[in-house]
Amino acid sequence: xxxxxxxxxxxxxxxxxxxxxxxxxxxxxxxxxxxxxxxxxxxxxxxxxxxxxxxxxxxxxxxxxxxxxxxxxxxxxxxxxxxxxxxxxxxxxxxxxxxxxxxxxxxxxxxxxxxxxxxxxxxxxxxxxxxxxxxxxxxxxxxxxxxxxxxxxxxxxxx
Length: 159
Prior knowledge:
Blueprint: E1 17-22, H1 26-42, E2 53-58, H2 64-73, E3 79-87, H3 93-112, E4 116-123, H4 126-132, H5 140-158
Parallel strand pairs: 1-2, 1-3, 3-4
Helix pairs in contact: 1-5, 2-3
């Protein structure tokens, strides 16, 4: 039975990506940022060309969605990648930040039709966050960039 397959390639050549990085827990998020930028370059993107890769910084993960929305509205980007890190504390503040950040990032993608990638670590402990930011379990920044590249290429095919 004939059918059409739509799949995004893992090549960043010609893509325009916005990378938004939360400064809160920057010892982790900056490590994720560096891995994301390296991945963009390794996949053929021009990491040193500001028309190809824009990096924006926000105070914390809660500010990622509004920044993503405003960047998406410019029409300059093929995908937006949001990197942050929220570590559970002794209050329910964690739950509110994680829930609203995840919902906000999802909403940007749904509202604009632009891939908006959730690269926010949501961890119970610092050790878990360190592991997911590059020590034992890969690097969430690299994974988020690969997802953004694949989705940007898929959306070009869909359109």
